[in-house]
Amino acid sequence: MREAISILESTLTDANFRKLLAITDRRVHRFVADAIELCRPMKVFVCDDSKMDTEYIRRTAIARNEETPLANPYHTVHFDGFYDQARDKERTVYLVPEGESLGQHLPQMDRKKGLEITRNRLNGSMDNKKMVVRFFCLGPLDSPFSIPVVQITDSFYVAHSEDLLYRRGYDYFRRLPDEKEIFWMLHSSGKLMLGTSIDWENRGVAIDYKENTVYSYNTQYAGNTLGLKKLALRLAIRKADRENWLAEHMFLMAVKGPSGRKTYLTGAFPSGCGKTSTSMTRGNNIVGDDITYIREVDGKARAVNVERGIFGIIRSVTQKDDPLIWDLLHSRRPAIFTNVLITEDENPRWLDDDQPVPKGGTNYSGEWFPGKVNRDGEEIPYAHKNARYTIGLDGFPNLDGSLDDPRGVEIGGIIYGGRDMDTWVPVQESLDWAHGVVTMGASLESESTAATLGPSGVRKFQPFSNMDFISIPLGKYIQNHLDFGLRLSAVPKVFAVNYFLLGPDGYYLNRKDAKIAWLQWMEARINGDAEAIATPTGLIPTHADLETIFREKLDRDYTLESYEEQFKLRIPEQLEKTERIAGIYRDTVPDSPRAIFDILDAQKARLEEARTEFGDYVSPLSFSRS
Ligand code: OXD
Ligand code: MN
Prior knowledge:
626 residues, alpha+beta, Phosphoenolpyruvate Carboxykinase, domain 1, Phosphoenolpyruvate Carboxykinase, domain 3, Phosphoenolpyruvate Carboxykinase, domain 2, 3 domains, nine-stranded mixed sheet, 18 helices, binds oxalic acid, binds manganese (II) ion
């Protein structure tokens, strides 16, 4: 390869060359020069995070049809291609050096071969296009949590949405400590028609963890293209493994207790299962809704939000149920909507927004009208189920003051929640850290949703809600969680929640806002303010505590009848689950820690004993206080 500097000098304008060279790290120069040689852009734009540069990115996204302005001058819409509407798990592969294996759950390919395919796809991919070079930081700046990231893309939409979602890092890069580990992201949308990628059949994401580099091509959907989101999470999980900390698919929030007390909790829920809405619940403070890094500091678990914005599912956001986000999405805060409908009067509409079905407009299929069908004769909804909003957290009235604290916050609890209609009770606490790691985190299952390609509603093994992003062998990842607890003197409590339990009539047993009550109970438990009842699967609330919480926080009764139905121990389903999970680990995870089987066996024995004593379905009133 030619000298990096001479490639940069001959390709970049003076102003862009100066901006790039103000960052003195030679690794940065090499990465950009290599991307130029490979993708051969017509021009290169280096963003220095000035208002002029960030505005230029937004304006160019509009000028190039990657985004369409709306009536609200702070809003735009981006459409992804018809077949490019979610994360493509199958074509997101790890490039594994010869002789290594990540186990059977992770899609992987020989590194040499994968790099060859990837580089072929990216070869000349920016012909006639402009390359954007941006600098960001994952986590607060200048903190033990910070990870600097270089993002190269030919999509002004990608460069624009990352501006709303991540901490700008140009100045940070100028003062980086020597040899600080950097993540490298290279993306190209490939050929475009009307602003969307047309070569989606040849799309892919290749994770070269050996070089901390991720390549993404022929796709635009944020989950596949925004390097700092789930692509960096995969690299962060490997870094965390090397350095003994945790990189998790979790929200981070402060739950407010009595007299202004704040207790920080993180929560792992698979995509589309209530993670974002929990983090935004009224009365509490949000720190982040999607990705959290957790480190041990002086025996405590401290955490930060990796991001500074939200890429949230917009379906079902209504004025009544979600007033906070509804108001923000109708304010002057900058936002990008994706895959919604644009009405004739240039407003966005999404599914289940509590308003009449629109009469027409433009959506991800082009011009839309009621009754429009796809190639297979299926009706095209007016907006995609996985339509999203992208917005900064700075507009949230309940944003927690800790967002940019380089020390992070101490967490008191970790929550695991899935989409489960018949097994878990609405909330329970684990017996201890290892019991929570195994029976809650490692046993998490959930029905699939529209956030990934493929059928929705199928029960999937989703350990830690991080299965899609785990980048080390699964057994090792679980061992790391078990070990993490051992290093702590203040061990967070571990909880499991289930918002999706169904009654015998097929309706949800809980209203959407019941999560406010479960959060309050967890806050009280962490602070020693609530009692619990010991059941074979964990510690559950008493009816009396929930009755008080529902009255105080939700202004309604919580009847003994509801309590008995919701907190009933469903022994056949629980036993089936225990068997199913133990079977998955036994048959498919060769490096499973022994603790998984010991803890599941002990749980099984407790369940069988309870069945002998009480029968299959047991009222919570049958168990005694712990
Ligand atoms: C997301 C996801 O977009 O997990 O956060 O799919
Ligand atoms: Mn997510």
